[in-house]
Structure formats: structure tokens, C-alpha cells
Specification:
- The structure is a single chain.
- The protein has 359 residues and is α/β, with parallel strands linked by helices.
- It has 3 domains: 3-60 and 177-244, Rossmann fold (3-Layer(aba) Sandwich); 68-167 and 255-298, Rossmann fold (3-Layer(aba) Sandwich); 314-356, no CATH class.
- The protein contains 16 helices and 11 strands.
- A 5-stranded parallel beta sheet has the order 2-1-7-8-9. The protein has a 4-stranded parallel beta sheet with strand order 4-3-5-6, sandwiched between helices.
- β5, α8 and β6 (161-167) form a beta-alpha-beta unit.
- It is globular.
Length: 359
């Protein structure tokens, strides 16, 4: 059976759902990617599962794990006279300590929404007398195109382009979650988009080091149901392995050209994740050759940090310790139109997804 026929095979789906519902152990499966969370909630898959199988959302939403002080730095730059901020759309809604980029734009900040960092390079070419800063957030999925923007700016000898860097990588944060005994995850649905770049091999440590099963899965309903069925089979048989069920897109070795571009431009560093804290070797920094494009080095940003108490549960939700509906603010004080935390801002944020499909 070819892949497209399999995606529409109703009998196959029914058989797998039956197998899943007959599973008797209590288990917790984490889907790391925010797009998987959306697909699971939108399709109603979670409602098909028996009570002993818990699906929990992980920290695979780049907006959600971007720290408050990063937003503060971006806001500070946005208020400078000679700076143009370029950014992905969702990020402007995330609150910093006192304000958001959206509010800064309303007050006259020069902020341009782009769909790619290569557009930001073009903005820099068109505005040679202004500094153009791209807000470089995301995971391995966006890192290659950000790296290409740096390489292009270097080739063009653009002195007015830089990035405010907060790129993060997946393996280290997954390892952090495995080691958190409060989370106690029994298996992983690995991030599909990230795996396209890194390859399925990047997650072999889950099985080899920690004896847990994992599956790289696509985003169709049957992809996710197949992933769940395979994980439960491995758990039931005591098998620790990483299976690639998304091999129509994901290769074992990944996208070698994208990996090469990333490695030429970035090197690994420690990184702070919103709600999770500092995680070793979970971020990317520019190599010395390209440090001139680092906005943190280029601009002297002075910030006065203010601790703000909040009952937002985004940190625990990102760790899988709480569901969005467990937060006291959910759908009351916190909505997509009035978000109190980053998990409600992004379309990949679990709070945003649960709010949209709450009825």
C-alpha cells in the first residue's frame, strides 16, 4: 500500500484505535512539537484515548520558550531612533516586563513583519542608513534560513544588518524533561519539522541512553494514531527504539546541506528557556567569523529588570506538568486577544490550541 492510500485507509485507522484502546498500562506520552499538539486537539484524537493513556504537550513552541528579557531587549531596540526591527508575526504579541513589541509599534516603533530573515536582509539593503535587526528565534527548523541570511549579508558586506539571537535546539531540552522525575514520560512523539533538518538519528539518545521508546511522526491524523500505536507496542514489549514513521520526509541523516549551513554559522551554547530555566548546550551562538552580525555585541542594551509575580502556568505547561485547562487564567483572564503568557500567543502554543478547540 502506498503512503497516500494508507492515509485514507479507514480500516487501518479503526484497527489501530482498537489496539490503542485495549492497552491497559498507565502511560504518559509527550508530543514535543506544537504542531502535533494542534493536530491532536483539532482532530479529537485525545478524546478517543482511554483514561490510562495521557498525552502531554512539550516545549516545542518557539514563541512560548522565548524569555521575557529577550522581549525586553527587542523592545528597547525598537525605541531607538535609527533601528528597524524585523520579526515573525507572532512574536510582537508576547509581553515583556512592561510592554510588547505590538505596543511599541503602536507608539511609533519601526517594526516590520517578515516571513523570512532573507526579507530582513532586503530591508537592510533598502535602508542603508538605518540599522536593521532581525529577531532570530526558533529551533533547528528556522536556524538554516537564519544562517543563510547571515551568509548573504556577509557576502553583500552589509554593515547595517544584525540578528538578536535566541535560537534553541531540541535534544538537550528533551533530555532535561526525561531527567525530571515529576514529568515521568514513558515515550515521545519527536518533533517532525525539526527532524526534517536534524534527521531521526538526532533522537537516538532517547532509546540508547534512557531506554525509552520514541517515534518521529508526521502531522496527519493517521500519522499520529500510527505513532501512538507503535509507541504502545514498544512499551508493551519492553522495546527501546526510535522509529521513523515520517520517512516520506525525514531521513535518518537529515538535511545535510541545511546542517552544513548551520554548522558553518553557529556553534552550541547554553540557553535559557522560558519556564524551564537554563539548559546546557541547548542554544546556538554565532561563530567568531560572523560575530559582527550579533546585535547583542553591536548594541549596548541597558535594561532594568523587574520581577513580576504571575499565576500564569506556562512554565508547568511547557514541562507537561499541567494542562492548559489547569491554569487559573485559562479562558478567563487569558485569551488569544488578551494573552497573559506566551503559551496563549502562538498558534503552536498549547493554551492557544486548547482555547480554540475548548468546546
Amino acid at each position: 500500500m502506498n503512503h497516500f492510500a494508507r492515509l485514507n485507509d479507514v480500516t487501518l485507522v479503526k484497527d489501530m484505535i482498537k489496539e490503542i484502546r485495549e492497552f491497559e498500562q498507565e502511560v504518559k506520552i509527550m508530543e514535543v512539537c506544537g504542531t502535533h499538539t494542534r493536530a491532536i486537539v483539532e482532530s479529537g484524537i485525545a478524546k478517543l484515548l482511554p483514561d490510562n493513556i495521557a498525552l502531554i504537550s512539550g516545549p516545542g513552541c518557539p514563541i512560548c520558550v522565548t524569555t521575557q528579557d529577550y522581549i525586553d531587549k527587542a523592545v528597547e531596540l525598537a525605541h531607538r531612533d535609527n533601528v528597524i526591527i524585523t520579526t515573525f508575526a507572532d512574536l510582537i504579541k508576547v509581553a515583556g516586563t512592561n510592554t510588547s513589541l505590538k505596543q511599541s509599534k503602536a507608539l511609533g516603533g519601526d517594526i516590520i513583519i517578515v516571513s523570512s530573515p532573507l526579507e530582513a536582509v532586503k530591508v537592510a539593503q533598502q535602508n542603508p542608513n538605518q540599522e536593521v535587526v532581525f529577531l532570530a528565534i526558533g529551533f533547528e527548523t528556522t536556524a538554516p534560513i537564519i544562517a543563510l541570511s547571515i551568509m548573504k549579508a556577509d557576502r553583500l558586506k552589509l554593515e547595517n544588518y544584525s540578528i538578536l539571537l535566541a535560537l534553541k535546539t531540541m535534544p538537550a531540552v528533551i533530555e532535561e524533561l526525561i531527567l525530571d522525575k515529576e514529568v515521568a514520560i514513558d515515550g515521545f512523539i519527536c518533533p517532525g519539522h525539526v527532524s526534517v533538518i536534524t534527521g531521526a538519528k538526532e533522537f537516538n539518545f532517547i532509546a540508547n541512553k534512557y531506554n525509552l521508546p520514541a517515534v518521529v511522526a508526521g502531522f496527519e491524523r493517521i500519522d499520529i494514531i500510527m505513532a501512538l500505536a507503535r509507541l504502545l507496542q514498544m512499551i508493551d514489549n519492553g522495546i527501546s527504539r526510535v522509529d521513523n514513521l515520517y520517512n516520506r520526509v525525514v531521513k535518518v541523516e537529515g538535511n545535510l546541506k541545511a546542517i552544513d549551513v548551520m554548522n558553518q554559522t553557529f556553534k552550541v551554547e547554553d540557553s535559557t528557556w522560558r519556564g524551564l530555566g537554563k539548559i546546557e548546550k541547548s542554544g546556538l551562538m554565532l561563530r567568531n567569523k560572523y560575530r559582527k552580525f550579533d546585535a547583542k555585541n553591536k548594541f549596548q542594551i541597558k535594561l532594568v529588570y523587574q520581577d513580576q509575580s504571575s499565576i500564569c502556568s506556562c512554565g508547568d505547561i511547557l514541562k507537561g506538568k499541567k494542562s492548559p485547562v489547569d491554569c487559573d487564567l485559562f479562558a478567563e483572564g487569558c485569551t488569544p486577544l488578551n494573552p497573559k503568557g506566551p503559551c496563549m500567543v502562538s498558534e503552536e502554543g498549547s493554551c492557544n490550541v486548547y482555547y480554540e478547540y475548548r468546546r
